[in-house]
Each structure stands twice: as structure tokens, then as C-alpha cells.
Amino acid sequence: MKALAPGTVIFHRHRGYGVITAVNLLTGWISARFGNESRTLDLNLSTDEVQFADGEAILFRRAPPDRMPHARLMAMVRALHQAGYQKLYLYAWPKPSGLHWRWHLFTGQRDWMQRSWREGWYGSGADYNGNPVMGWGDTPGATTEELIHALAKFDPQGLAQALGRDEDHTAWFAGVCDALLPGYMYSLDMQRPNGGPLTEMPPVPVIPVRATLPPYAGPDIGWPPGWAGLWSKVHVMPAPRINLTGRPEVPEQTD
Asked: Which domain of life is it from (predicted)?
């Protein structure tokens, strides 16, 4: 199916040709303006028989959509690992509200806490609900192969940094994907009581990516390689350097 976005020309059998002004792919509702009408009309893609301008039907999937993109990202990372891009890592953690989970892809050195940030390689489930794309030129509902091609086109230099071997992490990630996909994702959320030291290593939290799925009941998921040493002490992010100039510092760009 073609991409559906604001600006798409559509046809409705009672209103004729119109232009979409807003899309909510989580609920299946769109807003569109027809002819010389000054206000928009709300339409449901499941029941209002909306078509593209060339007559192709717009079919809205009635099944509950993924509320977060992490499972799709996990499938993409596993495929890239199999293609030799083993220095690619997926970090996921909850937002402070606990309602959504962030995600971050990074490459190169496997440093979970001091990982580099590249524009377009991170996002949040909260943004995904209203705009279900990753942010590197992909389209809603893109397959694993399409996500890979879009990422390679968007940032070939960044993806090239993932070339290399990291066999222990690749084996861990493949086992996690076998246990969780397609309905569940992992969250690397280190809980510590009242800010105290991390004295234990509980199983990795697992969250369903669709609201209709039951809680995860499979085998426990262990933490990825490189996390074992983080459980014996309180993790503190490095303090920012002292600024004596009186002018705000511009964050440095990292590759």
C-alpha cells in the first residue's frame, strides 16, 4: 500500500476528491478537506471506504498496532548481525513516566553508558504512537529489509561503523530475539532500592509491544555482555565540566 500522510490526495464516493490534513494511524482516523469546504471532515479508514486518487482502496488494519517499535528494531538488528554488522547495539529503557520506552541504536565501541548519539538513531514509543516511523526515511509498516535499506541510505557512514565481530553480544541478542519476538521487547532498566548500590542481577524486564498480549511468561532473559560489572556499585553519570566563561556551552557532535 502507498504511504498515507498529510497532503495525500484521496477519493470519497460521496465527497469526491480531497486532501488529507491529518492522520492518526493508531486509531485509523484521518482529517481531510474536500473541494471548497472551509472545514475538515473526519473519516474512519475502516468504515468510510476511502480510496487513493487512482482508485486503490485504503485498507486499515483492524488488529491492535504495536504501541512501540522495539520488536521491529530487534528484528532489524538481528538481520544486520547476521550480515556481519555485529557492532550494532540496541539500548531500550523506560521514560520517567513509565508509560513509554525509549530506544537507541549505537555502533562501534560497546559502551552502554557512554554510547555515542547520532541524529535519527534514537526515539521514543510516545512519538511512535502518532507517527509510526523510526526517523531515517522509513515508511510506516516497513519490513525488516526496507528498514535496513532506508537506514543504509540515511546514514551509510554510521552504519559502516557497525561492521565487525562481537560474537558474545551477537549470540546473546539472537537468543533474546528467539525468546521474545514478535510480541515482546526487553528493557535495560537497572532498578536500585532508594538509590542504593546494585547488589543483585535480576532478569531483564520484558514488556509486550501490544496491549492485547498477556504478560511475558517465557524463560528469564539475562543481561547483555558488558553489564555484569555495573551491579556492584552505584552508577553515576560523569559530572559536567566547570564552565567559567559565563556563556552556555554548545554540545559537541559525536559520531
From this structure: Bacteria
